[in-house]
Amino acid sequence: MTTIRQRRVGKGTEAAEDQPSEETNVKPDGKIPPGGKLWNILSITVGGIVAISLGLLTSVYVATLHENDLWFSNIKEVEREISFRTECGLYYSYYKQMIQAASIQQGLHGLVYDNKTESVRTINILERMNVYQEVFLSILYRILPIQQYLEPVYFYIYTLFGLQAVYVISLYVTSWLLSGTWLSGLLAACWYITNRVDTTRVEFTIPLRENWALPFFAVQVAAITYLLRTHLQPAQERLTLMAVFIATFLFSLTWQFNQFMMLIQALALFILDCLDMLPTAKVTWLYIIQISGLLLVCVLQFFNSMILGSLLISFNVSVLIARTIQKNLKKGGLLNRLGKLILHVLLVLCLTLLINKFIKKILNLESDEHIFKFLKAKFGFGATRDFDANLYLCEEAFGLLPLNTFSRLSSTLLFYIYGFVLFLLTVAAVIVAFRNLSTIFFSSISGSNQVQLKEKMEEYTVTLKPDAAYSLVHTVLFGCLALSTMRMKYLWTSHMCVFASFGLCSTEVWKLILKCLHLYTSQRTQVIKYSIPIITLLYISFKFWPGIMDELSELREFYDPDTVELMNWIKSNTPNTAVFAGSMQLLAGVKLCTGRTLTNHPHYEDKNLRERTKQIYQIYAKRSPGDVHGILRSFGTDYVILEDSICYERRHSRGCRLRDLLDVANGHIMDGLGENEPDLKPSLYPRFCEEIKKNLPSYTMHFTRVFQNKTFHVYKLAKHK
Asked: How confident is the model at residue 330 (pLDDT cuts 50, 70, 90)?
């Protein structure tokens, strides 16, 4: 088991004006005085320098934490590779494979016709997995004259840490665009850093797909925020659409869960468009960009059927079709429009399901069925004995967001301010939506009452321009995702920093608050707009700076001698063509460290692989030695690795241990005290991983132990004729 030890010494919104920052220093004739233009240039320059500086500092910060935690510069190569745990090691192995290939062409051929990732099968890695970033980076490393100055592993991890700079700068710019002041961006970046535990995990899961993808997603959100500003020039709009497309494409290319994240984004656009809070033309362009970006990725991934069968493509196409059918959706009175909206939503939903089912039927697509089984079980639509669904349900990362997350976020004041801004803008959004849907409702109110009501509602609409409206729905939907699935919290918490800082630095928000308190003056609004964020920044700096310094000074060391011993033994004592079976997580490391062939691996988005993994995992179930031997040999297995940490697992409670999941799936009673379902029966055989260690004849005729230490036991399989 890997441990870290102390280092030994040695519409309503469409009609709104542009951001207030663009309206300051403007004469009545619309011209900006020379002094105002100079001040704007100076402000943009300073804000840009601060953004770049914070981005670079964040990169250095996470790189230093990674070095201090593992002593990465001092440990051996095998230890560095073991530190890339589970699927991280699998992805990095393809970068290593491309680097070590005789040529770029041979490296690419090895990926397209790969027969070492899944034994007795040849698969196309570029089709199955999102590893184009590893391919691009390996080619870049080979052609740049840096080999004698920089090891391949450092080129890889420094690129990922460099992307953190892009991430922070994008969050900074998004907040700046929303609020009109770069002070908001500074606050967003500081919150991102001080809440690092909940905003990123890049320093200990470097090759994870989300660490490649989320910076591009942040760039896309920043570009969308700019696109939704009013009064853009045609050239500005075209350039922004191009930026959105490039960011969407790169995000889609680097993460297999891209379609689900963009589906949530499309839902946000759909909701706002239905409520007439975004320009329809721009929303249409964003739908088209999502579809085209995903289809381009589909082509690059050799027409990956999982992409073609994604809900995102079906949903976006359905929205465009439904909008063509219902041309007068945004005309009429309140009740009329509500009726049309309900019909529109039902039409889109039905079309989405029909189109998606049709595509999956044509393509015979079953790659993503485990996700829907998991969701069905997670949200209480019936219990399941499905092994794959339960494997996800029992993992903490796919559980509900822990409550202690909110206490950590509150310690930096982030959650308190976020909640306040969220409440205020949600109320404003409801009022804006009601006004947009009530074009005829106002005509029924006569005289001064109508004027007073409209003036009162105008006070609220000024706080919710299109970009702010999008940011609100974006954070609500991704918040719901994070609350339901902890692993997805990083999409929410980073935008939480943006949203809270925008609210704290927004002229419109403070203007609304002061008007409600009957304390509004322009000067008071400006003073509060800048003083409160500065006070918040001072508080964060005073409270967390010493902790950050202590964190940077704490030195640890990577320590996993059992796994190192196992990998060294495999490299020294087994042929290069040997096939290994074991847990998905461990086998990813076996491939990276030794280059041996695997029976299964952690990239779970393939039905055949999921079925294969369930069969391989019978080594931890109650099965006869003959059955287990037959299963393993059917996949060409030469060696099987058993882990005590799985066989005698205590990390999960009864019912969620891997052996329990296998017992239930096999119809057997689980071990230990507790209830069992009535139809489960005792197994005729003891647990394989325990019984094999007794060296009974019925086991030794099939398996010979060739290696063992405190953690691992390796057995060689007999090759019966």
From this structure: confident
- Taking Cα atoms as reference points, which of 588, 498, 423 lies closest to residue 82? 588
3-state secondary structure 609-627: HHHHHHHHHHHHCCCCHHH
- Other beta carbons within 10 angstroms of residue 432's beta carbon come to 26
Residue-wise pLDDT tens digits, 101-118? 999 999 999 999 999 999
| Cβ within 8 Å of residue 683, ≥6 positions away | 622, 623, 663, 666, 668, 669
CB 195 within 8 A of CB 410: no
pLDDT digits (tens, 9 = 90+) for 563-585: 999 999 999 999 999 999 999 99
What size, in residues, is the chain?
Answer: 721
Alpha carbon 681 to its chain's center: 41
pLDDT of residue 455: 57
Bridge-based pairing state of the strands 597-598 and 579-581: parallel
Q: Which two tokens stand for residue 87?
A: 């699927």
Residue 1 and residue 562 in contact, taking contact as beta carbons nearer than 8 Å? yes
Rounded Cα–Cα distance for residues 680 and 670 (Å): 9
Question: Does the structural domain 561-717 have CATH classification 3.40.50?
Answer: yes
Measured in Å, how far apart are the chain's first and last C-alpha atoms? Answer: 37
DSSP state of 678: T
Per-residue pLDDT tens over the stretch 91-101: 999 999 999 99
From its phi and psi, is residue 170 left (phi > 0), alpha (psi between -120 and 50) or beta?
alpha
Tokens of 327: 């041309």
CA angle, corner 377, sides to 372 and 382, nearest 5?
A: 120
Model confidence pLDDT, tens digit, residues 433-442: 888 877 544 4
pLDDT at res. 64: 96
The reported pLDDT for the residue numbered 4 is 56
Residue 705 is given by DSSP the state: E
Given the structure tokens 């080129």, which residue do they identify? Answer: 155
- CA dist., res. 221 & res. 211, Å (int): 16
The pLDDT of residue 709 is 94
Q: Percentage helix, strand, coil, to 5, in the chain?
A: 65, 5, 30
DSSP 8-state code for residue 73 = T
Pair of tokens at residue 599: 């029976």
Report whether pLDDT(691) > 90: yes
Where are the chain's structural domains? Answer: 159-442+459-553, 561-717
User: pLDDT tens digits, residue range 506-555?
Assistant: 988 888 888 888 888 888 888 999 999 999 999 999 999 999 999 999 99
- How buried is 136 (Cβ within 10 angstroms: 0-12 exposed, 13-18 middle, 19+ buried)? middle
231: helix, strand or coil: coil
